[in-house]
Specification:
Blueprint lengths: L1 H14 L3 H20 L3 H37 L18 H16 L9 H9 L1 H4 L7 H9 L6 H34 L6 H32 L17 H7 L2 H12 L9 H19 L3 H19 L19 H22 L3 H11 L13 H16 L16 H21 L11
Helix pairs in contact: 1-5, 2-3, 2-4, 2-5, 3-4, 5-7, 8-9, 8-16, 8-17, 9-14, 9-15, 11-12, 12-13, 13-14, 14-15
């Protein structure tokens, strides 16, 4: 009950009016879950299942996608010489709606597929949906993983709490020191792309790549660390994705909870990899287009999804998408030349796709790319923030050293003398407070999804 009230208070601090939408979504899936579990016939069970699916996706569609479809329809009709003034909704997007909607969808799908029984305790189920560390930006939890932890008796574990605090510290460092610093330069370059050389535009895209990684994985670290203070282990959401050797590996390491959600609830039901190359290609394009659309109602996200589908195609067609399941250069200090080149190429493809993710529209994205592929790409960048570049190098070194752990500093200093270990944590803390006070605070990127 304390966790539920705290979670509702946490969400109400953003906008108390949308708390009722969260409660309605929770009640809907709780009661439809019970109805499915107690349904006397398969037909009745299917009715309650589709009621939940349609209402959940209906709310998501109204708040997140209605204006997009209305505007797109108007623009398509105008291409044939007809003028239509679309009716749009003046409503803000409820924070976290995509995340808690997917929590509920996975729950009702699992009940319908007889994977889990319906939860009878409303408080336990409501905490599963609204647990505040993951409420607004994930990870997207499964009832099979989180509900048993909520229902079981938990006692304070000092070791887990210290580990959680260490992960919170690293998450804050990634967000405040890395992501928000990169955001200042990424915003400056993207917002004035026409004024900069191709080399500067490349640097801007790289800065955004580190911004979104530090921002989103930083939030996930804070969420996982906070949950660990309550004795709860959330699903891991990031596993050093920028050290991936191909795009398939990248998607096993980036936003893991969403990637596995689409795999289990969309890709496999569509037939997965069965049925030959055509089935694999079709299903891969579907999940990447849907993934792009999940992120936002904009053609830029759909193109971003399509690009990632194209990038992953060679490994799908040649069945090499399961080649890199281990950690790169496992047990070694440096990677081989082939591994290094593979990581550079994968990172370059990822950065290129991020341009569409960051751009306001397709015209802006294409203009940005055109600016990169010009003769000015061979010039010295007009913007060269030395202090930030040094920070990024240090950040990458720490991430590389800790890449075999759950998070980069999980084992840092565990065997050092206590004064040295504490001094290291104080350095991280000092940097966090310094940069938090000296720069414009940036909202978490994934709050908009």
């Amino acid at each position: 009950m304390l966790l539920l009230v705290s979670s509702y208070f946490f969400y109400a601090c953003w906008d108390w009016r949308f708390l009722f939408l969260l409660i309605f979504s929770t009640l809907l899936d709780y009661f439809t879950g019970l109805k499915m579990s107690d349904a006397p016939t398969e037909r009745a069970k299917k009715f309650w299942f589709w009621l939940s699916i349609i209402v959940n996706l209906g709310f998501l569609g109204i708040f997140k996608y209605y204006n997009f479809f209305a505007t797109s329809f108007s623009e398509a009709v105008s291409a044939f010489g007809l003028k239509v003034s679309p009716f749009t909704l003046e409503v803000i997007l409820p924070v976290g709606i995509s995340f808690y909607t997917f929590h509920g969808l996975s729950y009702v799908i699992d009940i319908y597929k007889n994977r889990i029984p319906a939860e009878r305790n409303f408080i336990d189920y409501a905490v599963f949906v609204s647990f505040f560390p993951l409420l607004v930006a994930g990870p997207i939890e499964r009832a099979t993983h989180l509900l048993p932890q909520i229902k079981s008796k938990r006692s304070f574990d000092y070791t887990k709490a210290v580990d959680g605090l260490r992960q919170i510290l690293w998450g804050l460092f990634k967000k405040v020191v890395i992501a928000d610093q990169c955001a200042e330069y990424a915003n400056m370059i993207f917002n004035n792309a026409g004024d900069y050389s191709g080399s500067t535009l490349v640097l801007g895209a790289i800065f955004f790549a580190f911004q979104i990684y530090g921002d989103f994985s930083g939030y996930s670290d804070i969420a996982l660390g906070t949950a660990r203070l309550f004795g709860i282990e959330l699903l891991r959401n990031f596993s050093f994705p920028y050290f991936s050797r191909d795009i398939a590996e990248f998607w096993r390491r980036w936003h893991i909870s969403l990637s596995t959600w689409f795999r289990d609830y969309l890709y496999i039901p569509l037939g997965g990899s069965k049925g030959g190359n055509w089935m694999r290609v079709r299903n891969t394009f579907i999940i990447f287009i849907v993934s792009g659309f999940w992120h936002g109602a904009n053609w830029t996200f759909i193109v971003w999804g399509l690009l990632n589908a194209l990038f992953i195609m060679p490994s799908i067609l040649f069945k090499t998408n399961r080649n890199n399941l281990d950690t790169v250069a496992q047990g070694k200090l440096i990677p081989s030349g082939r591994e290094f080149l593979s990581m550079v190429l994968t990172f370059a493809l990822t950065v290129f796709a991020w341009i569409f993710f960051r751009a306001e529209n397709l015209t802006e994205a294409l203009s940005y790319i055109a600016g990169i592929f010009s003769t000015t790409i061979f010039t010295v960048p007009e913007i060269w923030p030395v202090s930030l570049l040094i920070l990024l190098i240090i950040f990458l070194i720490i991430e590389w050293i800790g890449r075999e752990n759950q998070f980069a500093i999980a084992d840092m200093g565990l065997h050092w003398p206590r004064p040295v270990r504490w001094a290291t944590y104080y350095v991280f803390g000092t940097l966090i407070f310094y940069f938090a006070a000296s720069q414009t605070q940036q909202q978490f990127i994934y709050f908009q999804f």
